[in-house]
Amino acid sequence: MKSTIVMTGASRGIGRVAAARIVAESPDAHLLLVVRGDTGARLSAELGAGKVSHVSADLGSLDSVRSAAMEIRNRLERDALPPLRGFVGNAGVQYTNALTEGPDGFESTFAVNVLANHLFIRLLQDRFAAPARIVITSSDTHMGDFRHNLGLVPGPVWRSPEILARPGAFARPGTAVAGRTAYSTSKLATIYLVHEYARRLPPGIDAVAYNPGFVPGTGLARNAGAAARFAMRRILPILTLTPFATDVSAAGRSLANAALGTTEAPTGSYVDRDQVGRSSAESYDERREAELWDVVERLTTGCANA
Q1: What's the fold here for domain 3-300?
Q2: Domain residue spans in the chain?
Q3: What's this model's pTM, rounded to 2 decimal places?
Q4: For 109-119, what is each residue's pLDDT tens digit?
C-alpha cells in the first residue's frame, strides 16, 4: 500500500535508526523528514534517494511548524506524495533550566515536545488516509520512580497547562532539576494528548505513545553540562547490558515497528518498547486530558473544544 510517513527527530539517535528501518522494511512507503536547517538533503540522500524527502522547520517556532505542515499539505494535494498514512513525532528536547523561551513566548521544552506535534497533527488531520497511525515518542521518565528514572530525572509535576506552557513553571526554574522536570512533565502531556487523539480522530486514524525506555548515548543531553554529556556518551551506555536501559539500535527498531504497525496496538495505547503496556496511574486522567486539549488547541490553532 503506497503511503507517506512524516517524521520528526530522524537526524540522530533512535530516530535515525528508525528512519533507516522504515525505508528498508516498507518498500511502498515514502518517508518525509521534518528537519532543522540544511541537513535535509544530505539525510534524505543517505537514507534513500527517491524514497525520502524533507521539509525544513524549527520545531520551537509555531510559525515554522505551520509553514512546514502547509508545504506537506500542498504536496499531498498535488499528488506529489502518496497518501498520508503515518506521522512519527520523535523529536524531543531537554534543557538545563525551565526558563528557555521560544519565539512565541512558550517554554521551549513544552513547545517542541508537545505543541509542535499537536500542531502538525491538527493541520494534517484531514489529509490522513485510513488506515493511518500516529506515533508520539514519550518517555518512562513520566513514571516518576527510581525503577524507571534511575534517579536521573525527577518525576513530572503537573500544573495548569497554561502555566506549563510558559517559562518558570517549576521550582528553582533556573536549575537543571527544573529543566528535567519540564521534560518528564512534557512526556506526561504527550500521553494525555494521545488519549485525546484516540477519542477525537476519525476511525482508522490510530494514535499511540511510544516509550523507548532509558536510552543512553542519544543527543538528548546535548544541552547539558560537559560532565553530564560525558556520562551519557561514555559511562551510562554500559547499562544497556542490563534490563535498566535500551541501546540505540534496539530502541530505533522498536520505534520503526510502532510506526509501521508491526507492533500491534489499539489506538490510545502506550507501546513500551515492542509491546503494549500500562503507563503511569497518573497518566489516566480524563479531566487533565480535556483541559490540556483545550489549552493546546487555543495556543496552536486558535480554537477550543474542537
Answers
A1: Rossmann fold (3.40.50)
A2: 3-300
A3: 0.90
A4: 999 999 999 99
